[in-house]
Amino acid sequence: MEVLGLGIELLVLFVGFGFMVGVFFGFFGMGGSFLVTPALLILGYPAPVAIGSSMAFVFGTAVIATMKHHDVGSVDYKLGALMFVGIAVGIEIGKYGVLALDALGQAELVVGTVYVLLLAAIGGLFVRSALRQDAADDGTDADPDEIPEIAKKIKSYNVPPMVTLTDGSKASMWTISGVGGGVGVVSGFLGVGGGFIRMPAIYYLIGVPLAAAVGTSLFGALMSGAVGSFSYGLDGVVDLGVVTALLAGSALGARIGSAATAYVNEADVTIYFGIMLLLASLAVAFGELANWLAMPILDTVSFVLLVGSSAFVTVVIFYYGARTIRTGSHPAATSPEGND
Description:
The protein is an all-alpha fold. The chain has helices spanning 8-28, 33-42, 47-71, 77-103, 107-136, 149-155, 173-190, 195-206, 210-234, 240-260, 266-293, 296-327, and strands at 2-3, 6-7, 162-164, 170-172. The protein has one domain.
């Protein structure tokens, strides 16, 4: 028996994995899309299908998240629109790179290798950030409208043409186009929303306050997902059954993850999220080794690592939330959600 073109076991797996990804997306504001492509690669989907389906998933989750940030006025639609051309061009470049590698029979190898490095780097940054935060936490809160010194330095150059953003600040179109194009290439090549790059770039390079950077990054993810899924869809490499199952799970997971931010201090679980990404990197590496060495047992190890580590972090979030509710205390602050 099949539902959405998937066997029952695979359907349950995708709904469950989508739920966990949704929890991460709702709680951390990131972690959604860059776990989906590796999972599909591990399960044996061709790289173009894994990437195209992940882009469609990005679009679905970003629509929901952008609407939420729209309600609190933290989306700079003008900046998002200015980034659109760069995003669209970048995605096409990334997509053609994948299709060219696929024609050579090297797409899975190259994309998988890039994911091993990417997940390891991001996971390492999360662990390092969590350890530093524990060591340096002095209880003070930063000004939410403050921007980094590097952003102030970039803005001071006034390279024309300059445009005025919604908050009244000015930015160079060269910076905006560069951010959009660079993130677009990453999105098109890896099947991710690119928020883990776009949000820091908007904050550190364009100089938008953090809350608006988060909301605008999600709007950028919406555009990336729309352009990417449409472009890959034209080539017939989007599996709508997989996407629907993932979205069904993530819709519930994202709501629960968002609600958990009111009860759980992100700093308490950030290190676990970083460790999960490091294990995900290891999982993709085992998946690649399974192909090279023709050892199916490594595929099983890879699958258990990815799903098991995701389930563990989901349980950790639920545990801290339940403990807070039971004791009646609330975290002093939580960070804004928003990177895909």
